[in-house]
Each structure stands twice: as structure tokens, then as C-alpha cells.
Design a protein that fits this description.
Layout: H1 4-23, H2 29-43, H3 52-72, H4 75-80, H5 82-108, H6 112-122, H7 127-137, H8 143-170, H9 176-210, H10 215-235, H11 240-252, H12 257-281, H13 285-290, H14 292-314, H15 320-329, H16 335-346, H17 352-374, H18 376-384, E1 403-406, H19 410-422, E2 426-430, H20 433-441, E3 446-448, H21 454-459, E4 467-470, H22 475-488, E5 494-497, H23 501-506, E6 513-515, H24 520-541, H25 554-580, H26 585-610, H27 617-651, H28 657-679, H29 683-692, H30 701-708, H31 716-748
Length: about 750
């Protein structure tokens, strides 16, 4: 024991330091743990072979991993993804396993049983790395993400029969027929007992336990379920991991799924770390050094074969671009292959040196994966000579740009109804069983769990949420949730209801927006604010032409800016439509804020282009015209924002309502002419715009004087608003004319050098 403590201390310190360093390069922690094990084994001469305690502890890391995968593979989930899971997934695993097994047997002379096991193991990809990267990049809901997810789900299920094959192939004291018969009987008993327990008792057990409000009892019941299921599977001759997988599937369709997963993740990650360290302990650095070239060539060949098989399968029902990106994303070999190979090593099915070469090869493909996924768009563009269009998804339709609502009591239900009315997507988290049932009966997106659980909060996408609302009745719950959110990311936007001024003072350090009254008026104000944020997020997400401006040539960058500037006119047009429809000031403000966000991005791009030393005279003149245009558009938006408030006031007075309507229609007609010029310049439209914005005559002064006369009997306040509004209208007409002149210049100056 005394000799073991220094090894544990060194291992923990080394793993922490390595993973902190590797995270800078977006490397998975798996790699750090394996390197840690390799260094410990070589430097401290620690031999992991024959250590049953370490083996069992490490194996339960896989048990918990399979359990959390089982949580994601409910029968309802499988039905929704039949094509991706069954068609793509089954074809990929079987096809890749056959090709790799044939190469292993015919090319390297590996015995057929071992070749089948090795081929099947190498067919698997890294669920941990791929799903993490797709989630972080927001691609999980894209066609590539959906295809990759379906294939990974089938691969995870396929681990079970692969592990069974190892058991079958290494059993020599029974005939194959007898072994298969015994396996079938044991499988029927194991599955029957576990599924009967899951359907009849598990839901009631967790309901009773959750009603105790005891975290210790709740955790104990989860561990009992996982470990008990694993032991039952092991007792009947199967792997512990099969029991863990089935236990996950039993809980997958219950309301406790997300909370169970959140509570178990720390155990899973800790024990998985032990497993991967144990894998590293089995690597002999001498073998690696002697076979370094072989390992590199094997890694490249393996990824190429897997990518080719994947591409040929996915391209049948998806585009070539989607098929290639999916193939690149899943071309590595993953952690479950390490599990299978560790069993092969333990059962002495193959030469340890060969297994170690394969393990290091797998680790090499895993190291390459983050770089490959990051560069997949560039690789697709290079091969197919086409630009990969990013998925412009409405942020409110996915688990991004949504609202996280913590609590579903009276105030939470008020917020929920208003969010529904506003058409804003949201997800509810509540630890009250009755509130959860009520939310599900109303067909709302709800998760049962602890509102302060950081893992659970991240699972519902709190980092990407427009806002998080703490509609909790207990101030202690508010404090715990606030602390958890601050630990995830202090910049997350939070609106919290608090009972008193004293509580408000205690929470000020979190920099939340705090409200005291949980009434319908407060709820309405909160949702109005969120609706503005949603409009702003939607406009910002629709930047269509400047997503890859850094890699463009100067002329292409200038045209991207010109195209994006036209979108500013579209936002202004939407603002006019909102004024015509008498939308409230908050709604109008959202459009103006959207304009400011877009114009800031465009302005920054213009400044970057101006520093390009390769600009020709024509290009320099063109970008300077766009710079002037940008300034005019920003001024126009500012004037329009002030005018919108004044038009709102004038429309509320019967005596000036018609004037406000005529003014909006007249200015909108000028704007539409300007937009026509921006999209396709013509001398006729330019002449029309010049006539509409001409400074000849009195402008609006004559109309203004008629309304200011005594016969109209306007209030003093409305007279002041009228004077300001008509001045702003004249100013807008002048700005429209200047912008039109800029588009005339752009039509004359060549678009490219």
C-alpha cells in the first residue's frame, strides 16, 4: 500500500498536467490518461498484468460508460433514427469489419478468429471525442451530425456482441453449439429479469427514493441499479458492461434519465480515467520505438479504409459533401476498440507486441481526430472544388438560442404560457415530480432533475441559451442554482425572482437581473425582453456572406461586404414594416439593435480590408465608397430609431395619425427604390430616387406649418414631437439620396481588379 500511494500521486499529478496541456490543442483526455499510464509503467516499472483489483476497477469505468450510452439508446430514440442507426450504422460496422478482418487475415496472416475480433474492434469510432466536438461546434443537429450520431449509436450497441465473440472464441472446454445454446438461455434469463425489473419496479423505486429528498439515498439507488445489473449479467456469463448497458436502457424512458446521467458522470469519468491509464500501463515503449513507422502507416491506412467505406455507404442517400464530412468525422478508431483489445490481450488471443502496436495506432487516430474534424470543411472544399455552405439554422428551433426555465411553480407556469404565446422555445428543469408530470401533460419540453446540477444545466444547453430564468420559490434553491451557473460561465444571462430586498442584496455579486414580484406583469416584461433578444440573435445568425472572409481574396472580400451591406437595408425595411403594423417600441428596438450588431461586424471587416497592401486603385476606391456608405447607413438607422418613437406618439393622436401613416408609406417607397438600386443598379431607378429625395421645394415644412396652425389644436407636447419627426423625415430623405449616389459610384467602379 505504501508503495502504491506515490504511484497514485504521480499518476494524478501527471494526468492533470498532461490534460491541461493537451486541452489547449483540443485533445481528448483519453490521450492524456493513456500517455500517463505509459510513462508510469516505463519510469516506475509498474506492471499492470495480473493485477485483478486494478482490472476490476478499470472495467467498471466501461460499465458506467455503457450505462450512460444505454440512457441515450431508448427504444423510442431508435425508432426516430431508423435510417441512420440501422441502415448507415449496421452497414458501416459490418462492411468495415469484413474489409479489415480480410486485410488482417490475408495481408498479415492473423488467425481468422482473431482477425474477426480485431476487424470488428477497429470498425468502431470514438463516441466520446466525436459527440463532444459535434456538440461544442453546434453541428449535432446538422445532416452530418445526425448521420454520425446514428452510426455511433449502432456502434455502441455492436460492442456487446463483439465482447461476446471474445468470450465465445476464447472458450475451449465446450463445443460451439453447446456454447451458443447456453449463451442463448443465459441471455434470455438475464434480459427477462432485467427488463421485468425495469418495467415493473424501477420507476416506482426511483419515485419513492426521490420523494425522500435525500441525495445520498438517490445516489445509492443509482449505484445499486448499475452495479446490480452488471453483476447479474456477469453471473450468467456475460460482461459487466452488458448489464450496465441494459440498466441504462431501463432508465432511458423514465423521467429520471437526465438527473441519473448527471449524477453518475463523475463516477464514470473517474473510473474511465483509471481504465485508460491501465491501457497505457500495458504499452511497452520499446515496442513502439521499434515499430514507429509501422504504427504511422497503419494509422493512415486504417483511417483511409474506414473513411472510404463510410463515404460509399452514406453517399447513397446524402450529398457527396455530407457523406465525405461524415466519413472524415468517423474515420478514427475509438475507446471501445481499446476495451476489446485489452480483453484480447488478457485472454492471450494474440501476440502482446501486435496488440500494443494496434493500441498505439488507435491512440494516434484519436489524436488526429480533433484536427481532422476542424478541417473537414476545407478538405471537402479542396476535393469537390465547391464552397461548403454552413447550416444557417434558426437558433430558436434547436437546443440553442432557447430559454432555460428553472422551476415550474406558479411563476414558472406564467412565464411558460407567455413564452408559448411568443413562440420562443424553452426547456424546463424541475425537481418536483408533480410539476414535472404537469409540464409533460401539457406537452412541454421538461427535464426532471436538480436545478443546481452543473452537468444537467450544460446538457440542456445553458451556455447557448438566450436567457436563463430562475422561477424558483425557495431562495436557497435560487442561490445554489446561481452559484452553479456562475461556475459554468459567469457571463450567462440570468433573470431571477427573489422574495425580498435582503435576498436581492445577497445575490448582487452574481450580476443577475433580479425581480422582486412574481406576478403576471413581471412575467410579461421578462418575456418581452427575451423576445427582443431572440430577434437580435436571429438577425445576427443570418450573416450569409462573411462567414469565411478571412480566407478570401481582396476583391471577394469587398463583394462579400457589399452583399452584407444590402442586408442592412433589409433590416431597415423590416423596421418600416414594424412601424406600419404599429408594433411596440420594444419590437422596433430589437431591429435597431440587430442593425448595430451587423453594422459593427461589417465595419470591422471594412477596416481590415483597408489595411490590405494588395489593393488596386479601383478596389481601394470601391472599398472607400462602401466605407462612406456604411457611415450613412449607421446614421440612417440612428435617425430612424428616433423617428420610430415619434411616429408611435403621433399615431396615438387622432389628429396626427393620418400624417404618421402617410409619412411611413412615403419613406418606405423611397427605401424600396433604394433597395432596387442596391440589388441591380439602373439609371431609371436612380433618376426616380433623385426626384423623390430632391431638396428643391419646401420638403415637409409646408405640411408641418399646416399642422402647427391654431385650427389643428394640437397639444404643446405633440407639436414638439411633430417638429422633431418632420425634421427627421427630411434628414432621412437626404440620407437616402446620399446612399443612392454611393450605389451609383459602385456601379461605375469595377467589382474586381
Amino acid at each position: 500500500m505504501q508503495n502504491l500511494i506515490p504511484i497514485i500521486l504521480v499518476a494524478v499529478a501527471l494526468a492533470t498536467a498532461l490534460n491541461v496541456f493537451l486541452r489547449r490543442f483540443n485533445m481528448p483526455t483519453v490521450v492524456g490518461y493513456i500517455i500517463t499510464g505509459t510513462i508510469i509503467g516505463s519510469a516506475m516499472h509498474f506492471d499492470a498484468h495480473g493485477d485483478d483489483t486494478l482490472h476490476h476497477v478499470a472495467e467498471f469505468g466501461i460499465v458506467f460508460l455503457m450505462f450512460t450510452i444505454g440512457l441515450e439508446v431508448s427504444f423510442s430514440h431508435l425508432k426516430e433514427m431508423k435510417k441512420e442507426v440501422l441502415a448507415f450504422g449496421m452497414s458501416q460496422v459490418v462492411g468495415t469489419a469484413i474489409v479489415l478482418a480480410a486485410v488482417a487475415n490475408l495481408g498479415f496472416g492473423i488467425e481468422i478468429k482473431s482477425a474477426i475480433i480485431i476487424g470488428s474492434a477497429l470498425a468502431l469510432s470514438s463516441t466520446a471525442i466525436v459527440l463532444k466536438m459535434l456538440n461544442e461546434s453546434g453541428q449535432i443537429k446538422s445532416p452530418v451530425g445526425r448521420s454520425a450520431l446514428g452510426i455511433l449509436i449502432f456502434q455502441d450497441i455492436a460492442v456487446i456482441p463483439i465482447l461476446l465473440m471474445v468470450t465465445i472464441f476464447t472458450t475451449t472446454d465446450k463445443s460451439l453449439g453447446a456454447l451458443l445454446g447456453e449463451t442463448a438461455i443465459n441471455a434470455a434469463i438475464t434480459l427477462g429479469v432485467l427488463f421485468a425489473f425495469g418495467k415493473l419496479l424501477l420507476g416506482h423505486l426511483f419515485r419513492i427514493v426521490s420523494n425522500t429528498n435525500s441525495k445520498e439515498i438517490y445516489m445509492g439507488s443509482i449505484l445499486l441499479t448499475v452495479v446490480g445489473s452488471s453483476y447479474l449479467a456477469h453471473y450468467f456469463g456475460f460482461s459487466y458492461s452488458l448489464g450496465g448497458f441494459i440498466a441504462g436502457m431501463m432508465i432511458a424512458d423514465t423521467i429520471y434519465k437526465y438527473q441519473v446521467e448527471a449524477d453518475l458522470i463523475p463516477f464514470r469519468d473517474l473510473l474511465l480515467g483509471v481504465f485508460f491509464v491501465s491501457v497505457g500501463l500495458q504499452i511497452d515503449l520499446n515496442v513502439v520505438v521499434q515499430n514507429l513507422l509501422t504504427i504511422i502507416l497503419l494509422g493512415l491506412g486504417l483511417m483511409l479504409v474506414k473513411a472510404l467505406v463510410l463515404f460509399l455507404i452514406v453517399v447513397i442517400s446524402e450529398t457527396k459533401q455530407v457523406a465525405l464530412k461524415t466519413a472524415l468525422t468517423l474515420s478514427q478508431t475509438g475507446e471501445f476498440a481499446l476495451v476489446v483489445l485489452s480483453m484480447v490481450l488478457a485472454s492471450q488471443m494474440q501476440d502482446p507486441a501486435l496488440v500494443q502496436i494496434l493500441i498505439v495506432t488507435i491512440v494516434l487516430t484519436m489524436i488526429a481526430t480533433p484536427f481532422l474534424i476542424d478541417q473537414s470543411d476545407n478538405i471537402v472544399r479542396l476535393i469537390f472544388r465547391t464552397k461548403v455552405q454552413p447550416s444557417h439554422l434558426d437558433s430558436a428551433t434547436l437546443l440553442s438560442g432557447h430559454v432555460v426555465l428553472l422551476g415550474f411553480g406558479n411563476f414558472g407556469q406564467m412565464i411558460s404560457r407567455l413564452l408559448d404565446k411568443a413562440g420562443i422555445n424553452y426547456v424546463i428543469i424541475t425537481d418536483d415530480t408533480e410539476d414535472y408530470v404537469k409540464a409533460r401533460e401539457q406537452e412541454k419540453s421538461a427535464v426532471y432533475g436538480d436545478v443546481s446540477d452543473r452537468v444537467l444545466l450544460q446538457q440542456v444547453g445553458i451556455r447557448k441559451a438566450m436567457s436563463t430564468i430562475l422561477a424558483l420559490d425557495d431562495i436557497d434553491d435560487v442561490k445554489r442554482a446561481s452559484a452553479s451557473i456562475a461556475l459554468i460561465d459567469p457571463s450567462i444571462k440570468v433573470i431571477a425572482k427573489v422574495p425580498s430586498e435582503q435576498d436581492k442584496e445577497e445575490l448582487e455579486s452574481f450580476e443577475h437581473q433580479l425581480v422582486l414580484d412574481g406576478n403576471s406583469q413581471t412575467a410579461g416584461l421578462i418575456v418581452d425582453q427575451i423576445q427582443r433578444s431572440q430577434l437580435l440573435a436571429k438577425e445576427t445568425s443570418e450573416l450569409r456572406y462573411m462567414t469565411d472572409i478571412g480566407g478570401m481574396k481582396a476583391a471577394e472580400s469587398i463583394e462579400a461586404v457589399a452583399l452584407e451591406q444590402k442586408r442592412l437595408l433589409e433590416v431597415i425595411s423590416q423596421s418600416f414594416n414594424a412601424m406600419r403594423e404599429a408594433k411596440d417600441i420594444m419590437h422596433l428596438k430589437a431591429f435597431h439593435e440587430s442593425f448595430y450588431v451587423l453594422s459593427e461586424i461589417i465595419g470591422s471587416a471594412i477596416n481590415d480590408i483597408l489595411t490590405d497592401a494588395s489593393l488596386t486603385t479601383d478596389l481601394y476606391e470601391r472599398i472607400n465608397t462602401l466605407l462612406d456608405n456604411q457611415g450613412q447607413l449607421v446614421t440612417l438607422n440612428s435617425v430612424l430609431e428616433n423617428l420610430g418613437k415619434e411616429i408611435k406618439t403621433l399615431s396615438e393622436d387622432e389628429k396626427t395619425r393620418s400624417l404618421s401613416q402617410i409619412a411611413v408609406e412615403g419613406l418606405d417607397a423611397i427605401l424600396l427604390t433604394l433597395m432596387d438600386l442596391a440589388h441591380a443598379y439602373s439609371d431609371i431607378d436612380m433618376q426616380l430616387l433623385a426626384n423623390m429625395t430632391s431638396e428643391n421645394g419646401k420638403g415637409l415644412s409646408g405640411i408641418r406649418q399646416s399642422y402647427l396652425g391654431a385650427e389643428k389644436e394640437l397639444k404643446a407636447g405633440n407639436k414638439a414631437v411633430l417638429v422633431s419627426a418632420t425634421n427627421h423625415m427630411d434628414q432621412l430623405r437626404g440620407l437616402f439620396g446620399k446612399i443612392g449616389t454611393n450605389y451609383q459610384k459602385l456601379a461605375v467602379v469595377p467589382a474586381s481588379a
